[in-house]
Amino acid sequence: MSHSGDAAQHPPASDKLREYLRERAVDATLIQPGSDMPTVPLAAAALGVEPGQIVKSIVFEGKKQRDQVGLAIAPGDLRVDVSKVGAALGYTSLKLAQPDTVLRAAGYAVGGVPPVGHSTPIRVVIDKRVLDYPFVYGGGGDEQHMLRISPADIVRLTEAVVADITSVPVPASPGKPS
């Protein structure tokens, strides 16, 4: 039987994440908000949560050693300090990973990287402020989904290092104090 390149052959990335969570009996929920949430303030407003509860999962790679890959998880309203990430992971000279590296290491495309469930073992550092919340929302495997999960589960599942990896808050909008 011949198949065209339909979704049955390649299930959505969110399905892969859902299966990962089910296999490990993680109390987490994949949600599909149904509206675009390109910024942290819009995502927080749509979900009715504080901006700090929207977490970003950023993949970094070594500037000279691309095999040095790390994932930083931080509140969406704070800037990630690359030097602090490198120090926490024991890497020097990090940069944002290229999209091909993100896909290879995490198993998800940029914009949908979840804080857990990566396709290869990745060294993870989570900002200590994320642990201030009982649950957070992060990438859900693709741009249409978000994952609601407890920070304790993120740390347990990824064996994350907990550290201070952020600096100044991200401005809410130009011209307004943050």
From TrEMBL:
<dbReference type="GO" id="GO:0002161">
    <property type="term" value="F:aminoacyl-tRNA deacylase activity"/>
</dbReference>
<feature type="domain" description="YbaK/aminoacyl-tRNA synthetase-associated">
    <location>
        <begin position="37"/>
        <end position="157"/>
    </location>
</feature>
<dbReference type="InterPro" id="IPR036754">
    <property type="entry name" value="YbaK/aa-tRNA-synt-asso_dom_sf"/>
</dbReference>
<dbReference type="InterPro" id="IPR007214">
    <property type="entry name" value="YbaK/aa-tRNA-synth-assoc-dom"/>
</dbReference>
<protein>
    <submittedName>
        <fullName>Cys-tRNA(Pro) deacylase</fullName>
    </submittedName>
</protein>
<dbReference type="Pfam" id="PF04073">
    <property type="entry name" value="tRNA_edit"/>
</dbReference>
